[in-house]
Each structure stands twice: as C-alpha cells, then as structure tokens.
Design brief:
CATH class of the largest domain: Mainly Alpha
Oligomer: single chain
Number of domains: 2
Order of helices and strands: HHHHHHHH
Radius of gyration: 18 Å
CATH superfamily of the largest domain: Winged helix-like DNA-binding domain superfamily/Winged helix DNA-binding domain
Number of strands: 0
Number of helices: 8
Strand content: under 5%
C-alpha cells in the first residue's frame, strides 16, 4: 500500500470505513461471534487490499468485494472443528430474537423465529443475502444494494422472490 498513489490509498480507506460495519454485522449473523466475524472481515479486507489496484478498474467493485467477504465467511466456517457441533448462526439469532421479544409466550416467539430462519436458510444465496441485509440487519434496499454491489432494483427483485418462496415454505411447514 505504501507504493500506491494517494488517491488509491484514500479510496481504499474510504471503502473500508464505509463497508466494514455492514460486513461485520453480516459476518456475525453467519458466524455467531464477534471474534469469528472480525477474523473473517479482516481476512476479506486483507484480500481486498491485495487486489485493490486491480479492483479500481472493475465495473462492479462492490460485487467483487461482497464475493470476497462471503468466501472468507465460508472459509471460517470450514475451519471450525468438524466433530463438535456448534449452533448455526441462524439458530443463535432465533434465540436472541426470542429473548428480546416482549410477548408473553416466549416459546411461541422462539418457535416462530426458528421456523422463519430455517425457511430463510433454504432460499437461494442472493435472496438469502438480501433478506438478511434488509430484515436481519435493518438495511434499506439502497444500503443492501450498495453492500452487495448490485442495483437497488436487483435487491427489490431478490426480496420479492424471497417473499414468495418464504410464503410457500412457511405455509408448507405450518401444515406439517
């Protein structure tokens, strides 16, 4: 980085500052711990820094960076000890949602959250990403689009498809 021109250096640090909070929240949803999220996001930014000068010439720099982040999350998940079953991050999120909910029947809240997160896990990758960013992390469609490196209309399309798929999945699981 020391050999980069000042504009490239500033653009990298601006990107880092802008994207890191959302990347950390997204990684936490998948990894279930601050330490795991930080490790994965740091690895992603290390990879992005190594490719930054090349990335500056890409049409979809954000989309490439998003792919790098997701690869680092997957790598972190694969490094987990295979013989010890840890709770899946979506399972953890369901428990956290139930604890925060003020309704009297926490068991109902918990089972609804588990059903929902189970259904979300069955969505295709881009739909799942859009749902997690929009509803799990409270991003606006524009913010989700910026993080994913796609147009806002694409996020809206993914969300619409996800809503239809989730309605079918949750309707089917409610009947069984």
């Amino acid at each position: 980085m020391s050999q980069w021109d000042p504009t490239a250096r500033l653009s990298y640090w601006a990107f880092h500052t802008n994207r890191r909070p959302a990347y950390m929240r997204f990684a936490y949803l998948h990894l279930g711990s601050d330490a795991g999220a930080e490790e994965a996001v740091d690895a992603a930014f290390d990879s992005i820094m190594a490719e930054w000068l090349r990335m500056l010439h890409m049409d979809r720099l954000d989309a490439y960076a998003w792919t790098v982040l997701k690869g680092c999350i997957v790598d972190h998940l694969h490094r987990r000890t295979p013989w010890r079953r840890r709770p899946e991050p979506m399972d953890t999120s369901a428990f956290e949602a139930a604890l925060k909910e003020a309704r009297a029947d926490r068991y109902e809240v918990l089972t609804d959250a588990i059903r929902f997160y189970s259904a979300v896990s069955r969505l295709v990758e881009r739909q799942r990403d859009a749902v997690l960013l929009r509803y799990g992390l409270q991003c606006t469609p524009g913010e989700a689009a910026a993080v994913m490196g796609v147009d806002e209309a694409t996020v809206s399309s993914h969300l619409g498809q996800a809503h239809r798929r989730l309605a079918r999945l949750l309707d089917t699981s409610a009947e069984s």
